[in-house]
Amino acid sequence: MLDELDRRILHLLQEDGRMSYSEVARILGVPESTVRARVKRLVERGIIRKFAALINPFKAGYSIVAVIAVDVEPSKVREVAEKLAKLEEVDVLGITTGAHDIFMQVTLRSLEELENFLLDKLGKIDGIKSTETSILTSVKKWGYARVF
């Protein structure tokens, strides 16, 4: 369970992951050793999965961000999800409820790469019955998991 200090530390690090522990401590009015210990505990518990830069793919040479709904044979949903999760193009993937079995977000450089991904990679995974692809024409918010 997260307490208020954990939430405040996470909020600051989500806003600026390069913020030093001493700066976090100064803002929150706690000792740096407290921040260091809290972050270490959050990492050990898997609450902080990793420290990373959030990239704007459109400014980094990618022109396609797509959301792909995948329909799978019921007995193979987990197996297919595990295979899809290993593909480098896949940014986010989850087994879902509702009209489709799996949703994923992919980032690619071009329509040609999207076509190759759909035909050469997804098309070769046993158990996939169909896909439905939507290309994002613009992104209004890039985010991350909020915990508060």
TrEMBL record:
Recorded GO MF terms: sequence-specific DNA binding
Signal peptide: none
InterPro entries, per database record: ArsR-like_HTH, AsnC-type_HTH_dom, Dimeric_a/b-barrel, Tscrpt_reg_AsnC-like, Tscrpt_reg_AsnC/Lrp_C, WH-like_DNA-bd_sf, WH_DNA-bd_sf
Pfam families referenced in this protein's UniProt entry, alphabetically: AsnC_trans_reg (PF01037), HTH_AsnC-type (PF13404)
Gene Ontology terms: biological process: response to amino acid
Domain HTH asnC-type, chain residue ranges per copy: 2-63
Top-level taxon of the source organism: Archaea
A GO CC term attached to the entry: cytosol
Keywords: DNA-binding, Transcription, Transcription regulation
Protein name: Transcriptional regulator
Lineage, top ranks: Archaea, Methanobacteriati, Methanobacteriota, Thermococci, Thermococcales
